[in-house]
Every structure is written in C-alpha cells, then in structure tokens.
Amino acid sequence: MDKDELLGILQPESTKINQTMKQELATIENPLLAEVINYAIFNGGKRFRPILTIFCARACVINKIPEGFATEEELVAPDNLYRLATVFEYLHGASLLHDDVIDNAETRRGKTAANIKFGITPVILAGDFLHSLAMTLAGKIAGVGLQAAVGQAICAMIEAEFLQMQTAGRQLLSEENYFNVLRGKTGALIATACLSGGIYEQGADEKQLAALNLYGNALGLAFQVKDDLLDYLGDSGKTGKVVGNDFVEGKMTLPLIHALNQAPEKEKNRLLAILADKPEKRADHITEACDFIKKYQGFSYSEEMAQNLVETAVEALDIFSDSQARNILIKLSQYVLTREK
C-alpha cells in the first residue's frame, strides 16, 4: 500500500468525520462563536487523530470476530463512533486556538491566525467551548471511563504547557525535558484517541489497551519529532510556516538540543549567545543554525529517533490480528516519517 492508496482509503473517513462535525457544530446558537470555531476546525488538516480512533476500534472488533462470521468489508462503523472520534479533533482545535494566543501567532496553516482575525477573548472562549464539547461527547457516547481518560489527556496537555513555559528561555539541553513536554502536548492526546477505539468497542482486553496506548504514545512522539525537523528542513509553501521559526522563537527542539550537546564549547557558546538575543536578531542567523545542526548530526539523530519511535509503534500492533485496519495503522505510523507538512 503506497501513500496515494493510503490517502485514498482514508479520504471517505475524513469526509465522514467532517460531515459529523458540521452537524454537531450546526447546533451552536451564537453566530460569532460558530464563526470562530468553524474557522479553526475547518482550516485544513487530515483528521489524523479521529482517524486513529476509527481504525483502532476496527482493529479491536476484527480481533474478536469469530472466524467466518463476517468479513472486514462487511463491517459498518456506527455513527456514534464517528461522533466519538470528533472529540479528538475538537481537543486538537482547542489546543491550537489557545497555543496561538499564548504564542501571539499571526498565521496558522498559511491563513491569518484566529486570535488576529477575531481577537483574544473570543478565541479563548471558543477553545474553552471545544474542551467542554469534547468532554460532553465523550461522556455521552462512551461513559465516565472514557470521559476520565479524556480529562487526563487535557490535564497532561496543560501541565506540559506549564513545563514548556517555565523552561522557556533557559536553554535547557535536556532530551528528557524535551520528551516530557512532548508526551503531554502531543503524545497524551494521540494515545487517548487510540485508546478510545478499544474502550468504545469494549472488545479490547488490558493487554490490547496497553498496546494501543504504547502505539499512540510512540506515534505522537514520532509525529512531533518529525514536525520539529520540518521546521528546519521543510518547504514553507507546504508546511505553512517560515523555515527556522522554532529557532527564531528560541525553542529548544531535538535537532538543536542534540547538536548543542555534540558541539565543541566555542561553537556551542556562539549559538547559545545567538539564542539569547532578540527574535529579530535570531532571524538573521537561521542559515547558520541549520548548518550548525547539520554539522553536529542534529538532523540525522532526530530522523533516527523518529524512525525508532515508529518501529516501537508498529511492534505494539503485533498483538492484533492481521487485517486492513491494522495495516492502515502501520502505514499511518510510517507516513509520519515521510510527511511534508
């Protein structure tokens, strides 16, 4: 299954997820709130997180169907599974709205950021609304168990934001700190999206739920490491972000952390001095930063780390029966390594 075939299989699922969200969001009564949320939710994106929910649920169902009872093609996902899957797109959308306020962002996916277009207060409230909607849907559809899991993921995301805020500007060269932030900001939500498929179907045992959790966490970390690589190496026309934006913002991501830890003291101190300067000054040294990271294997090390994380994710799926759903989950994890935006 190549990339185009994978995307072709996923397209109907993305369409169904979008339709489900449009129906849900059509019930919002306040016109401004509806406009802000629709602007944020339908601003591109491949619906990666809800798709994981759908296919993790299918992998669990296939695992418990008696041989000869039904084929995978005959399985029809219930509408409530799609409604549950949208929970994770709402949470992702809320985090992006709040992130843009925190970062004073001007653009998001090549468009004017919502906080610039609508103002800070409406965007914060819209993010809060999406959090509440997600929690409400999780409880209604899958009960208090999944609602608690979603709540824990939100708490992990917020704690990770605090950790990132408290360590910002301190030039921490710790991979442990970097991955602690990632586990909360990215891994927790993706892992919960995967777990929700097993919890909803009530067919996953403890070992299978643990496997889904491991798959989601490893996939989430790989996704963010790749994102940090794209910040330096990506095509801005595809990513929607200026190359080297993380460096300009002074963010200590894995490529830079590794390179700084490998460099001789003199070169390391020069780059740290640039990082300590103002953002507009850092912007003048993006090419130098990229050359420095490449020289001290920051890019190759991060690529290898992302590859190892994907391998961990794929191995976690060994517990499930061979099926199209399992194969798609494998291909989704491998797609993370080749994505360009």
Describe the structure.
- The chain is an all-alpha fold and 341 residues long.
- It has a single domain, classed as Farnesyl Diphosphate Synthase, CATH 1.10.600.10.
- It is 76% helix and 1% strand.
- It has 17 helices and two strands.
- The chain has a two-stranded antiparallel ribbon with strand order 1-2.
- A hairpin with a 2-residue loop joins strand 1 and strand 2.
- Helix 4 (79-103) runs antiparallel to helix 6 (120-142) and helix 16 (298-316) runs antiparallel to helix 17.
- The chain is globular and about 65 Å long.
- The model has no long low-confidence stretch (mean pLDDT 91).
Which helices and strands appear, and what pairs or packs with what?
Blueprint: H1 3-25, H2 31-41, H3 48-64, H4 79-103, E1 107-108, E2 111-112, H5 114-118, H6 120-142, H7 144-167, H8 175-201, H9 206-233, H10 236-239, H11 245-248, H12 254-262, H13 265-275, H14 279-282, H15 286-295, H16 298-316, H17 324-338
Antiparallel strand pairs: 1-2
Helix pairs in contact: 1-4, 2-6, 3-4, 3-8, 3-17, 4-6, 4-8, 6-7, 7-8, 8-9, 9-16, 12-13, 12-15, 12-16, 16-17
Write down the CATH topology: Farnesyl Diphosphate Synthase
Structural class: mainly alpha
**Alpha-carbon Rg, integer:** 20 Å
Low-confidence stretches: none
Q: Number of helix segments?
A: 17
Please give the oligomerization state of what you see: single chain
The main sheet comes to: 2 strands, antiparallel
Total domains, how many?
1
Q: Strands of the largest sheet, in order across it?
A: 1-2
Give the overall shape: globular
- The run of helices and strands is HHHHEEHHHHHHHHHHHHH
CATH superfamily: Farnesyl Diphosphate Synthase
Helical percentage: over 70%
- Calculate the terminal CA-CA distance, rounded to whole Å: 21 Å
Number of distinct beta strands: 2
Q: What's the CATH C level?
A: Mainly Alpha
Q: Give the averaged pLDDT, no decimals.
A: 91
- The CATH level-2 architecture is identified as Orthogonal Bundle
Strand content: under 5%
